[in-house]
Structure formats: C-alpha cells, structure tokens
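Hey, I'm writing a tutorial for new members on how sequence and structure tokens pair up, and I'd like a real worked example in the thread rather than a made-up one. If someone can provide the structure for the chain below, I'll link this post from the tutorial.
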Amino acid sequence: MKPLLKVKRQGVHASVQDYGRFGYRAQGIPVSGVMDRYSYELGNQILNNQANAACLEIFMGGFEFEALSDHTYVLTGAVGDYYLNGAALESWKSFRVKKGDILSLKCAVEGSILYLIPQGGLNVELVLKSQSSYPLANIGESIITGSILYGSEVQPLPNIRGLMANYRPKFETLVQVRFFKGPHFELFTNESIQRFLTHSLQYIGGNRMGYYFKGGKLLLQEKNEIISEATQFGTIQVPSSGEPIVLMADAQTVGGYPIIGTVHEDDLSKLAQLRTFGNVMFHLMEEGD
C-alpha cells in the first residue's frame, strides 16, 4: 500500500465509501456506500478508475491533509472553497499533488457532500466484499486528525482530465424528487397526502442514517399498530410527529414507522446533496412511469 494523505485537521465528518455492501440486509447490515452515486461515478471515470474504486466522502468540508507522496486526485460533488498550498482548486478536474503539499477542503458552498478520489482509489480492508465504512457495526476506521489514507501505485495520468461545466450536476436549494407509493400510503388522510404532493418540505438536518424534514404533519386516518417493514436507502418514513424522515445509505434494514413512499433511486443523489434548510418537492410516480 502507498501512503497518500495524512489528516492534519478534522472536519465535520468523512468516511471511506465505495458502491456499498450488497447481500447482507437479511443479517441486518445495510448497503452503506456513497450517498451521491452520480458524483462518485463521474469522479472515477475522470481518473479512469475501476467503477467501484473507494473514495473519501466528506460532509461540508473542514478537512486539511498533508500529502505523503506524489499522486493524482479529483474533487467531485459539492462545489466549495478548496485549496492546494493556498491556491484555489477547481472541482471536477484532476490535479497532481506532490509530497509535502497541503490540501485544504475548507467548506462546501453548493451542495453538502464532496468526494476526494485518488487515482486508483483508496486502499482499505475489504469487509463483506466492500470497502465502505459502517461505524455502527465497527466496520472501517474513523477519519480523524492523524489518520493516514492509503492508495496504490499507479501510472500517473498523462494529461489533466475533467468534466465540462455544462455536464456537471447543479446543486439547487429546491430539488424535485420522484417517489413510489409505500405500503402505508393509503393509510394517510387525503389532506395529508395532498399536502405532501403539493407543498415543499424543508430539510432541517440529518446524517448518513436519515434526513429529517418539516413542513406540515402527515396524519394517519386511524392510529393502528404497524407491522415492521423492510426499509432501504430512500424509504420515506413518518414517525408519530408526522414529520417525514428519508432513510439514507446507513439506515437500518427494518423499521416500524408507516412508510408513505420510496424515493426513485435516480433522485437519491440530488436529495443527498441538500443543505440544511433546503427544500424538496415530492412527485408521485404512477404505474408505467
């Protein structure tokens, strides 16, 4: 393994992720993996990495790294204030780091999750066929001050590679998200369903387990016991408060709250990139859409 970077300053949160850990939900282990698959996939394509190459997923920035060797990287996902030795870095374009350089990822400005992807990917222990961290099961190491990130020896790219601006995702403060009916959709009052479909909800906070929203309580027609149902990344649960929660990549595999719907997998990336106090409009997918 090749030492790439040492964490000099710890930010909000970071973890090593790839596509995720498939085939273990029946044992209670979630898929995990990257929250914004679109940005992750594009970053690996820019560097000619394997599709499942591991990256560092960072929430909001705040991290600073010292380069321990020469290597090539790309930053994708959230646009922000990122610097190499004090000089501004452009996201979505490969850049070369030399040993001793300082990489500062100060803060995300548009979007909330950024991806630091090294050429060849990060090199961490494979657990249940994935390199994705899942802290609740003590899978993977915490990324803290002093942590060292490892990669692999690769032949450097001969040229700078990147993605043209008009192909880069836009991170909006109001996102439009499609969803499918959940098993308990018909149990909600008509007024609640209409409000859910016609009014935006505000994102008030969350993490890799779930995003919390407010903007009008969703009420059941009757207060009945709900049999626990399987959940997944994108499940929209409604707890007793009536304020919906969208389960994210590290969420539990079974839940007892009513499920009003499930977010279309193609819209999970833009939902994941919402910043606190951003808004979402949910659009119901009908059969055949």
